[in-house]
Every structure is written in C-alpha cells, then in structure tokens.
Design goal:
The protein has 152 residues and is α/β, with parallel strands linked by helices. Helices cover 54% and strands 11% of the residues. It has a five-stranded parallel beta sheet with strand order 3-2-1-4-5. The longest helix has 14 residues. The two termini are 16 Å apart.
Length: 152
C-alpha cells in the first residue's frame, strides 16, 4: 500500500507518537511512504525549531520512496525534484485547484498523490474534498482514520 502524508499529517504523527508504529508497518512491507520536496519544504517553514527538527526526523525516517512532483509551479517547485506539466498533468492540476484563485503546494502535492499513491492522509478537509473529486481512485483519509485502519 503506497501512502502519502500531507505535511499536516506529520504533525499528527508527532502528536500521537506514532512514528515507531508506522516504521514497523514499513519494515513489515505493509506500507511504503511516498514523499516529495513539497512536504519537506512545508515542514521546514515551521517556526518552532525543536518541533521542526522533530518533524523532519519523522519525515526522513518514514520516507521509503521520494518522488519528483509530476507538475511544477514557479517559486514553489524545485529544479530536479519536479517536472513541467504536460497536458494531462495540467488538467489534473486544474481539477485539484478547482476555482481557487491561486495554485499552491496543495495542487502540486495532489498531482503527486494522484500519480504515485493509493492512500493520501491529510487533516485539510477542503483539500481532501478537492482531491477526492479530482482523483476518486485514491483513498483520502484523515489521520485519525489512518490510525484506526492501519495502527490498531
């Protein structure tokens, strides 16, 4: 099962102390954790140094497969860790954006989730709704739903 965590899900992992349990799922080949530079960049913006370091430690510990994003935005995407969107990816980006005035990390991360994972975990209800609508083949879960299904 290929799982991708939104950056806010790492906050929940830290809060609940679940990194060890998720690591055990990875070791048992029950899940793989797909990441991109987007989650890392968002975590690095955390102003609290100790919390930022703890989150980055969890992020790197749980990452089993780092992927380039299949779409890119100026001033957001990293050279060498993203791809310029072709027509199909541009359509996906627009479908996830869905009438929002500006594109953001969510849309780029959503295109990566749509392409690379089976389960996407986020605490952002609006993003979850947009991603579910644009990519119905992905299971979009809150962290509490992920915990209930995978960690019990």
């Amino acid at each position: 099962m290929r799982v991708m965590f939104d950056s806010n899900a790492y906050d929940a992992i830290l809060k609940h102390g679940d990194a060890e349990r998720i690591s055990a799922l990875i070791s048992a080949d029950k899940i793989s954790v797909i990441t991109t530079h987007i989650q890392e960049d968002e975590i690095r913006k955390n102003p609290e140094k100790d919390e930022r370091e703890a989150l980055l430690s969890i992020f790197f510990r749980l990452t089993t497969n780092r992927k380039n994003t299949p779409s890119a935005l100026w001033d957001l995407s990293k050279w060498g860790e993203s791809s310029w969107a072709g027509p199909e990816e541009s359509f996906r980006l627009s479908a996830i954006q869905r009438n929002r005035p500006t594109k953001s990390e969510d849309e780029v991360l959503g295109t990566a989730a749509e392409k690379y994972c089976d389960v996407f975990v986020t605490e952002d209800k609006k993003f979850a709704a947009r991603l579910t609508s644009a990519a119905p083949h992905i299971r979009v879960l809150t962290y509490s739903a992920f915990r209930a299904e995978f960690l019990t």
